[in-house]
Every structure is written in structure tokens, then in C-alpha cells.
Write a structure and sequence with these properties.
This protein is mostly helical. The protein has 13 helices and two strands.
């Protein structure tokens, strides 16, 4: 597509962004008000999936505990609300910082292992965070905690207005996508891909492999925490279930469905999975079966993800 329609390829992200920005204004005319909240949820999950795609697709770090950082971010918002803070910017910023610190502590230990051991140790840490949340009776324990007062976004933004919150989430998502895309194609991103392809060679070349991986792991954890803070505001509810290992596995599936290590793989996978899930739920209680069939089709016909399939059909094999 880039070669045949270079102008369209450059403008397509801006066109999608404009359509997403206009959606809350157009939705009432078509009776689609409900889907404003749905698209907002897709954007929030896509933020978390993009951070996972960064460390997994570009860094080769197969973390199976990413939802733990989402939960840390969400519970940070709860803690700040419980302490009397009402600023959304403070709550979301705090969510990113605390999740980043948690990622630094977990990454400092986990990144000393590789392969299946790394998968298992990240899973173990995430489950520890899950059971810690279950034990927090002050914040609802296993039953979860409801946020009944909308966070404030300042004098110029009405945080209680769903359209304002939608546009704020859209702006944050666009910034996160642009930032990770820029970093992935920077010198740091190339070094990270070198580590993914041959860590031993990068060590021999003198790269500080451990520090480079830890920096990426912390950044991804902080962004996942930010997504958790946004998800807490979106749902007005937090529960330990959002940080269970099955949620981490679901994020992995979404990223692989869209295209691991592809620029638009994570948001495409999230949008495809959640849209199909929403559509199938309206017709059957057994919606897991068709999604399972979809995964099988992707494995056989697009093993590198749906984004890669589009690229091949457009005559561009590897736009990484």
C-alpha cells in the first residue's frame, strides 16, 4: 500500500484519528451512543496491548504478567481517590509512576532469567499482585471497589462528560502509539531488536543488554499502569480479576492476532477481538467457540498476524 498509494498510506492514520474523534458527535444521529463507551474501552485496552507489543514484539520479552501492571495502575487510582484526591491527571500520572516502579522491581529480578523461566517468573509476580489485591479488604477485596465520584480534569474539561473523557482517552492513545512507534524505530529500538534476535551477539558487541531490556520493561509497565488508571475511570470499578493471569494471556492473544512486532498490530488485534466478542455476545452465549475458530484461521493463514496479512496483500512484506 505504501508503494502503490504513498499519499494514502501517510494520511491513513490521520484519517482514522479524525474518524475516531468525530465518532461521539456522529453516534447519536445513528443511535450508536452505547458504542462511544465501547470504542473508549477498545482504545484503553489498545494502550496496554501496545506496551506489551513493544517489549514482546521488539524486545522478545514474553511477559505473562502484564495485566498485573494494569491492576497496579487501577488500584493506585483507587488509593488516591480513597485518600481524597480528585484530580484525574494526578491519579493517572500516579498510576503510571507506581506501575513503573513495580515494573522496575519485578523486571530487576525477572530479566536475569530467559525463555520459559522469564515467562514463569513474570506470571508468578503477577499472581502475587492478584492475591495481594484479593487480600485488600479496605478496597473491597475479592468483591472489588466502586469509584462513585468522577475524577476532575480541571476547570476547562468536564470529567463527568462521557464525550470529554472519550476525547482525552483518544488523545492519550494517539500519543502512546506515536511515542512507541518513534522509539521502536530509534537507535534504542534497533538495539532492542538486536537483543531479541541475538542477545549473545549484542553482549559481545558491548551493549548494556540488561539495562536496555529493563528500560523497555519499565516503560511498558508504566504505560500499562496508565491504561489501568484509565480503565478504572472508565469502569468506575476495580477488582482483582482485571490483573488475573488470564487477562495477561488475553492481551498476548490480541497482540499476536494483530501482528507481533508490527506497528499497528496491537490496536488492530484489540479492535478485532473486542468487536467480534461484542458482536458474538449479542447472538450466542457460546461466543468463545467462534473466536477460537478465528484464532485457528489466523494461525493457518496469517501466522504473523492480521496486520502482516494486509501488508503482504498490498505488496509490502516487512514494514517493521
Amino acid at each position: 500500500m505504501h508503494e502503490r498509494f504513498p499519499g494514502l498510506a501517510r494520511r491513513l492514520p490521520w484519517l482514522v484519528l479524525a474518524l475516531l474523534a468525530a465518532f461521539p458527535l456522529l453516534a447519536p444521529a445513528f443511535g450508536l451512543e452505547y458504542y462511544v463507551g465501547f470504542v473508549r474501552r477498545v482504545l484503553i485496552v489498545a494502550i496496554a496491548a501496545t506496551s506489551l507489543n513493544f517489549i514482546l514484539g521488539y524486545g522478545g520479552m514474553a511477559a505473562l504478567g502484564h495485566a498485573g501492571f494494569i491492576g497496579v495502575g487501577a488500584y493506585t487510582v483507587v488509593a488516591l481517590v480513597e485518600a481524597g484526591f480528585s484530580s484525574a491527571w494526578l491519579a493517572w500520572g500516579g498510576a503510571a509512576v507506581v506501575a513503573g516502579l513495580a515494573a522496575a522491581a519485578i523486571g530487576a529480578v525477572s530479566l536475569r532469567t530467559r525463555g520459559v523461566y522469564f515467562i514463569m517468573i513474570t506470571l508468578a509476580f503477577a499472581q502475587m499482585l492478584y492475591y495481594l489485591a484479593v487480600s485488600l479488604r479496605t478496597w473491597g477485596g475479592d468483591d472489588g471497589y466502586g469509584i462513585y465520584t468522577p475524577l476532575e480534569m480541571g476547570a476547562w474539561l468536564d470529567g463527568a462528560h462521557p464525550q470529554v473523557f472519550y476525547w482525552v482517552v483518544l488523545a492519550i492513545a494517539a500519543l502512546v502509539f506515536a511515542l512507541f512507534s518513534r522509539v521502536a524505530h530509534s537507535r534504542y529500538g534497533h538495539a532492542l531488536r538486536g537483543i531479541r534476535d541475538n542477545e549473545t551477539r549484542m553482549v559481545a558487541l558491548g551493549y548494556p543488554v540488561y539495562r536496555l531490556k529493563l528500560a523497555g520493561f519499565v516503560a511498558a509497565g508504566a504505560v500499562a499502569g496508565l491504561a489501568g488508571g484509565l480503565l478504572a475511570s472508565h469502569n468506575a470499578f476495580v477488582s482483582p480479576g482485571m490483573m488475573h493471569w488470564t487477562q495477561s494471556a488475553l492481551l498476548l492473544v490480541m497482540v499476536m492476532l494483530g501482528g507481533l512486532g508490527r506497528r499497528w498490530g496491537a490496536p488492530l488485534g484489540v479492535a478485532l477481538w473486542l468487536t467480534l466478542e461484542e458482536a458474538l455476545k449479542m447472538h450466542t452465549d457460546y461466543w468463545h467457540w467462534p473466536l477460537g475458530v478465528l484464532l485457528l484461521l489466523v494461525v493457518f493463514h496469517a501466522p504473523q498476524g492480521v496486520a502482516a496479512l494486509f501488508e503482504r496483500r498490498a505488496g509490502k512484506e516487512a514494514a517493521r
